[in-house]
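Narrative of accomplishments. A recurring question from our advisory board has been how the design workflow behaves on a single, concrete structure rather than in aggregate. To address it, we present the structure tokens for one chain from the evaluation set, followed by the sequence designed for it. No filtering or post-editing was applied between the two.
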């Protein structure tokens, strides 16, 4: 048997069938127990493959894992059957669980509904309460150490740093564990208690509810955040507004920095979390998990959208024609259920009816004047594009699109309004991350072109209910600050120390030189200082390097400039002067996370496609021949 060579025929009495995975402490094999006649998992350490200076400590931890887990018999804890050791190998034989880790499930970016989250957290806390009652503190609860079976059962594994009594987490001057999920006292080397596991369970619950970690960044940065009593975790409801205050309270109490302010045992957290879920379900109702669209269906819909766009271009060149119509094509009519989905929200019935008529031949149109109904549509059906009015009685369009973004981040969002409201414009990008800002009255042909483009992009990028990435590799990424005053540069350096690289340029020309010479992920620019050259640079960048995200700082109240930067430069965020330092940090961290997502999933870059410089949807003759619309639209909202 070798460290990295061929598969061993046996380990101890167990027949080895294959490799399930490799981890920090060894290899896990699928095997069979010929005596009991059952499949098992074998976790093995090859002794000669260990660092001689660390071998004794690793073997001790390995044996301690078997001792800690071996005394526990619980349906939500992976059962240990046997421990063995020879001159060559040390191994643990344990229950073979068919499923994935919670970490793998989270990376798939599919959101669980509240009932599923409640079940998973309930099972986790039940396992921890049982372990604590039997004197075992896990000390490394994290998604990678939680297995989920195909039928939704949860199993806690890897008790490698657990103790059958309280212990300290520092060995040979090194902290053992995962800082993103570790309680502050463990990072500090203090004694572990059941509330330490409660904290870790709170981080898992937080990620299940929000799709993001309670603290993110490099390991060193996360450790500073966790240890700093002034750095507070954002309530989960700030990410998902459907979450009830009772659920916020339960999760935040579990994540309290001081152990005495937390739940003192898992049962207390379990009860509070259950009440919070029940309060949330009373508000949102018993909503099932969103239905998924198969890759084959997505490919077919994408092809259909391309054909629609091409036919739109050729049809619009004919007299009296404004776009495609499935009823006028030579092929068979397309079933509404198999068309791309478009959601239209406006509080005026005449506008809804006009938009439905405009798009019903091309898309499956969902139209409503009720924002709550619109959000339920987004929950139940993945929308490829969403058009929302801004001023509505129930909530503003910006807020509606913000909530839709949380539920369905790859739905392409368009804001439709008859007002040049500066706050709405800024909010539309910072909160809703809209694809286009469209003024009323609009040009039918322009509107159809934009919506077809948005739907095609929505089809191309596919459905993702949660967009998140591993945030531990940001240090190689660079933020370019374009600012001759050095004020922004000082803020960025202070806010992002240890997080990523910071570069500086005095003007637009120097910025382009920097971008040509060095990889840049984010551009942070004060457009008041850079002027027209800076605006031109941002537009050029989005066409030539669409994966670079831009954050603009300005005190100007020029609504037209803002709309131009949204539509033609696809600005990621706006910052108004005077600049709030914490907001700078928040926007930059969000941009870094999105830039990494674009690097890992380059197809998502299409979501930031800019509009052509000549297009202006507020003008009825935006450089195009006068259309002959089937339904004339000229309204004020």
């Amino acid at each position: 048997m070798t460290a990295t060579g061929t598969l061993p025929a046996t380990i101890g009495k167990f027949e080895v069938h294959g490799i399930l995975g490799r981890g920090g402490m060894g290899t896990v094999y699928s095997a069979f127990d010929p005596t009991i006649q059952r499949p098992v998992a074998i976790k093995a350490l090859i002794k000669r493959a260990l660092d001689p200076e660390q071998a004794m400590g690793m073997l001790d931890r390995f044996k301690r894992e078997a001792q800690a887990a071996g005394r526990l018999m619980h349906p939500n804890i992976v059962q240990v059957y046997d421990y063995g050791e020879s001159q060559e190998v040390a191994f643990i034989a344990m229950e073979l669980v068919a499923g994935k880790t919670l970490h793998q499930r989270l990376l798939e970016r599919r959101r669980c509904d509240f009932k599923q989250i409640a079940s998973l957290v309930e099972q986790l806390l039940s396992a921890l309460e049982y372990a604590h009652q039997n004197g075992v503190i896990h000390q490394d609860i994290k998604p990678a150490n939680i297995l989920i079976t195909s039928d939704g059962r949860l199993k806690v594994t890897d008790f490698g740093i657990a103790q059958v009594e309280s212990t300290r987490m520092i060995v040979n001057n090194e902290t053992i564990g995962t800082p993103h999920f570790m309680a502050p006292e463990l990072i500090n080397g203090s004694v572990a208690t059941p509330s330490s596991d409660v904290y870790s369970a709170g981080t898992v619950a937080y990620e299940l509810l929000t799709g993001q970690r309670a603290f993110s960044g490099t390991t060193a940065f996360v450790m500073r955040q966790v240890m700093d009593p002034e750095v507070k975790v954002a309530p989960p409801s700030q990410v998902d507004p459907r979450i009830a205050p009772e659920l916020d309270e339960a999760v935040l109490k579990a994540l309290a920095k001081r152990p005495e302010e937390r739940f003192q045992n898992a049962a207390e957290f379990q009860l509070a979390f259950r009440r919070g879920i029940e309060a949330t379900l009373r508000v949102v109702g018993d909503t099932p998990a969103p239905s998924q669209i198969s890759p084959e269906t997505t490919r077919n819909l994408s092809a259909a959208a391309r054909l629609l766009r091409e036919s739109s271009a050729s049809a619009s060149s004919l007299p009296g024609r404004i776009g495609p119509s499935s009823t006028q094509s030579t092929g068979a009519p397309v079933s509404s259920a198999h068309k791309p989905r478009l959601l239209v929200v406006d509080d005026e019935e005449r506008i809804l009816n006009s938009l439905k008529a405009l798009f019903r031949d091309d898309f499956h149109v969902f139209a409503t004047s009720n924002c709550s109904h619109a959000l339920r549509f987004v929950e139940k059906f993945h929308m490829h594009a969403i058009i929302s009015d801004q001023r509505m009685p129930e909530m503003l369009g910006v807020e509606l699109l913000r909530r839709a973004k949380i539920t369905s981040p790859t739905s392409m969002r368009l804001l439709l309004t008859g007002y040049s409201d500066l706050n709405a414009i800024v909010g539309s990008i910072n909160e809703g991350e809209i694809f286009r800002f469209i003024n009323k009255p609009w040009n039918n042909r322009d509107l159809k072109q934009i919506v077809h483009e948005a739907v095609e992009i929505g089809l191309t990028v596919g459905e993702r209910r949660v967009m998140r990435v591993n945030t531990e590799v940001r240090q190689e990424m660079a933020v370019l600050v374009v600012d001759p005053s050095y004020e922004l540069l000082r803020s960025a350096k202070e806010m992002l120390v240890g997080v990523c690289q910071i570069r500086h340029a005095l003007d637009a020309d120097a910025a382009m030189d920097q971008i040509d010479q060095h990889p840049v992920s984010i551009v942070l620019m004060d457009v008041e200082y850079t002027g027209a050259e800076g605006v031109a640079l941002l537009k050029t960048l989005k066409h030539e390097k669409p994966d670079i995200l831009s954050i603009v700082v300005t005190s100007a109240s020029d609504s037209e400039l803002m709309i131009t930067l949204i539509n033609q430069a696809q600005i990621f965020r706006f910052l108004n002067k005077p600049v709030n330092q914490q907001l700078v940090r928040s926007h930059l961290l969000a941009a870094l996370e999105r830039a990494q997502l674009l690097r890992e999933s380059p197809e998502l870059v299409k979501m930031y496609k800019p509009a052509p410089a000549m297009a202006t949807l507020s003008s009825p003759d935006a450089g195009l021949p006068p259309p002959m619309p089937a339904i004339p639209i000229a309204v004020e909202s």
